[in-house]
Structures are given as structure tokens and as C-alpha cells.
Amino acid sequence: MNKVELVGRLTAKPELRYTSSNMAYARFSVAITRAFANAQGERGTDFINVVVWGKQAENVANYLDKGRLVGVEGSIQTGSYTDKDGNKRTSFDVRADRVEFLSSRGQGAESNDSSNEMFNAPSNDIDLEGDPYAEYGDSVSIDDNFLD
Description:
It contains one helix and six strands. It is mainly beta. The protein has a domain at 4-104: CATH 2.40.50.140. Strands 1-3-4-6-5 form a five-stranded mixed barrel. The model is unreliable at 109-129 (pLDDT under 50).
């Protein structure tokens, strides 16, 4: 079984391109804070590359921007290539079957609106110190039951 489910924030505006047969595809990266902390109490962040195809790719490119919260369902896709120094490399991407926009327009990087309201999360008891998403506005708290 090869299934991936992600919830995170876009690190940049998605890039829309077309194949030679005019099929749309978009690439973007999602930042996700790890659930566990290291010995110093710091949480790392993973940056996951995603590719989406067809009309969904056009929608992603037209309506999403840096900082927007998204949910992605898909599978891991591997590829290989030779870098500029002649070394063989392997790439890993999530091939999205579904991308959900979890924050509305204006709740991305350029907004001061509270994303917490969307999830009914209290904003006064969340520690923003060390939060990699702090520059995007208020932090987001997602109840584990939300993803079921």
C-alpha cells in the first residue's frame, strides 16, 4: 500500500506547467512541523515536494499562495536523474490525488486573520516561540479527531 496524507503550509506559490501534450501539472512544497521534539525541546520541520495533475493543478496554481494551509492525499512517487556533476540521484515526491484548501483566501502569509477560528482552537494558550509558521499569522491547532 502506498498512501500519504499531509496537512501543512505552502512554502511558495505553486508552479504551473504543461506537458508537450498540454496536460497541466503543478509543483509545490508543504512545510510540516514534526510531532516530536529533540532533546533540546525543538521540533524540526519537513519540506515535502508535491505534484498534482490536470484541472486540480490549475486550481492549485490559481487559488493557492505561500502560507496557505492545505491537506494533500496521494502516494509517494520516485524518480531518478543525473545531476550537473554526473551523479545519479533519486527524487521523492508526493503525487497528489486530492488537494484540499484548508484556509480561505486571505488566511495565508499576507493575512493577520486568525486560522484558529476555523478549527475553534483557543489562540491564547498556544506558544508561538520557535514556531516555523509564526510569520504566516496565528498558529493552527488541529485536534487529532479532525483528521479521522
